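Annotators were shown the component list below and the corresponding predicted structure, then asked to write short factual statements about the assembly.
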Amino acid sequence: MSGPTLYAALVAFGVLIGVASGLLGVGGGTLAVPFLTLVVGLSQHSAEATSLLVILPTAVAGSLALRRRRIGNLSLALRLGVVGAVGSVLGALLALALPAGTLRIVFAVFIGLVGLRLVRDGLVAERRDA
Amino acid sequence: MRRSLMLDPKLAAIGIGGGLLSGLLGVGGGIVMVPLLVLWASYGQRDAHAISLGAIIPISIAGIATYGAAGEVRWWQALGLAAGSIVGAQVGAGILARIDERLLKIVFGTFLIGVAALLGAKA
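Structure shown to annotators:
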């Protein structure tokens, strides 16, 4: 894919990511990274970097919406995030130091575990809301 | 100095853990922060989601800057996905009340397991 076709596919897949994260609270990254590697053909590192840039505006929009409804504590959340940013820089440096193949396997294990947890939650949650 | 600027060591640890995962894998980190905020720091589910979402803002900025310095960020692909994603999130929130969450989790979870296998096979 290239040019306008690729861009249309990106926007369409973005809608899917948004719907999934709106419904399940599973962030866009678990979907954006495989899409960017398998369909768009980015390297594992570029896909992860680009995924973070998709997550940022989504988190800003979501946080502002929650603040309007007075849910949560944005000031506390931002302070937690500023401390977390130290971890994020270290994590990204570690990723950049790993070969793409290794990083891809680590990512695959991660989303495999997320998938297993969702399936388990889906099977267990049967009567919780009743 | 002021108490309001201090952060509970537990919350700091949760932030660093979420940050590590986010930077390493290009995800939000909510998948570790939300359960830890609920089970370890005793926040309610809804507050934990909100705090995790807000924390992702500085966390993702730091990750983008680090990957950006290495020249890995693809700006226009991100713009396309983000434009769709912001619209999609409104749609997702709108249909949330009318959907079988159990089935959705099972279907989406199975899909992720399949993607994991595909990624593993191609690595």
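Statements collected:
1. The mean pLDDT of chain A is 89.
2. Chain A touches chain B through 101 residues (CB under 8 Å).
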